[in-house]
């Protein structure tokens, strides 16, 4: 037989219980549904530490895609300035102010991208 690797989150939500029979028929059915026409438009969105990457794929081809990077993390600390500020006694340095400003701008840019892709995202069967 053949072996396939698929991210579990593509097949079902983690809170959803997927019944399994002895042969895993429920899983096979889900995999087959992924290949049906009309279910092959997916969006992948990732955000972490001042980095954004997003794309909408139709049949394996990128329809739209975008990446962003912004200086929002504290060098050597590995955390965003906003996370540091939440712990109280927020630093008032020029670097901290710059990171706060960049974080607000970064969030605004990501929101603009997502709203610009609203029609593409509305047509996705999986985000």
TrEMBL record:
TM ranges: 42-65
Location(s), subcellular: Cytoplasm
Broad class of the protein's primary localization: cytoplasm
GO terms for biological process, alphabetical: ERAD pathway
Pfam families: bVLRF1 (PF18826)
Alphabetical list of InterPro entries matching this protein: ANKZ1/VMS1, VLRF1/Vms1
GO molecular function: endonuclease activity; hydrolase activity
Region (Disordered): 74-94
Domain VLRF1: 38-127
Domain notes: The VLRF1 domain mediates binding to the 60S ribosomal subunit.
UniProt xrefs under PANTHER family: ANKYRIN REPEAT AND ZINC FINGER DOMAIN-CONTAINING PROTEIN 1, TRNA ENDONUCLEASE ANKZF1
Protein name as annotated: VLRF1 domain-containing protein
């Amino acid at each position: 037989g053949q072996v396939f690797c698929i991210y579990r989150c593509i097949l079902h939500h983690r809170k959803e219980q997927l019944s399994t029979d002895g042969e895993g028929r429920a899983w096979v059915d889900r995999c087959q549904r992924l290949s049906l026409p009309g279910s092959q438009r997916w969006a992948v969105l990732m955000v972490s530490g001042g980095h954004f990457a997003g794309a909408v794929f139709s049949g394996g081809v990128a329809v739209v895609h975008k990446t962003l990077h912004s200086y929002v993390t504290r060098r050597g600390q590995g955390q965003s300035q906003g996370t540091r500020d939440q712990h109280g006694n927020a630093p008032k340095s020029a670097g901290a102010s710059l990171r706060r400003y960049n974080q607000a701008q970064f969030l605004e840019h990501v929101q603009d991208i997502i709203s610009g892709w609203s029609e593409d995202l509305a047509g996705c069967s999986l985000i």
